[in-house]
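Honest question from a wet-lab person: if I give you the sequences of every part of a complex, can you actually get the arrangement of the whole thing, not just the pieces? Trying it with mine:
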Amino acid sequence: MRQLLLFLVALSLSLSHLASQAAINIYKFDDPVKKERFYNLIGQLRCTVCQNQTIAASNADLAKDLRDKVYKMIQEGKSDKQIKAFMVDRFTEFVLYNPPVKGSTYLLWAGPLILILIAISILFFNIRKKMNAPSEDISDGEHERIQALLKDRQDGKND
Amino acid sequence: MKLRALLPFSAFVILVVLLGYGLTRDPKEIPSPLINKPAPEFNLPTVKDPDKMISQEIFLNKVTLFNVWASWCSACRDEHPLIVKFVKQHRALIYGLNYKDDRSDALRWLQLLGDPYISSASDLSGAVGIDWGVYGVPETFLVDKKGIIRYKHIGPVTDDVLNKEILPLINKLEKE
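Yes, you can. This is the full assembly:
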């Protein structure tokens, strides 16, 4: 049963991989570096129509046009930076799956770190409180007796 | 002690407010980077006469609407009568960008539904659309007398958008 499940998962993954490949394997490169850059870039640009897909994964018309555009720009010798700037000029930074660190994105980048710091300090605070709290294994009466004994001893020392 | 008990509750309220804000915004509306920038250059044949070319110079010296449409786009069909009515009523100037459309389909569409456009540019490849940041047809731009884009609406316009946003802005830009 488990093997069958695994097989099905593997099958669907490879099929979806095939489907996303099918749309983009028409691009021919004479230079493997350019090819690598092309697939890298289209995997980093968001399709503005379908929003949760990259232009590599999307079958939308616009995604196809943008892939063609990236291909053309790479063949023209444009740098990755120039191609990204081209997209940002037209569709804003929203098209970058990896938004740049700047004023309006500080919270986005620092957010997880801030949350972790808050969580750690709460944890630390609680542990310290627990350590200082009286042990729960003894009853109130016993606790009073202990305090009394300790006080006696301290009083004795002071004498 | 009471204050401490309120802490999870207030955290919850803050979360609800933030999520509420996030969920009620339309993620389809990406602010256009083209606002207050010159209209991107183009040089395209018109739909009516493929031998006649028009360029971004059509926008100079008048306040102009620029509507991106296509015969295959059903939302365009919804907004079209509103645009026809608006243009007739307020004598607004409007050009069209016929986006990735077949010429004969486009001509039939205009004949059937009316043609409010002074002229429509035929962007068969969609390259000009990319330069204009078009990603969801229909889109409507408002360009001022200097050829600067001042406003953009993504998706079909409604009577409210036309009369409460676009019309006041046209009147304001006319005086500039």
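Two things worth pointing out. The first helix of chain B runs from residue 2 to 24. The interface with chain A takes residues 27-28, 30-34, 100, 125-127, 129-133, 135-136 of chain B (CB under 8 Å).
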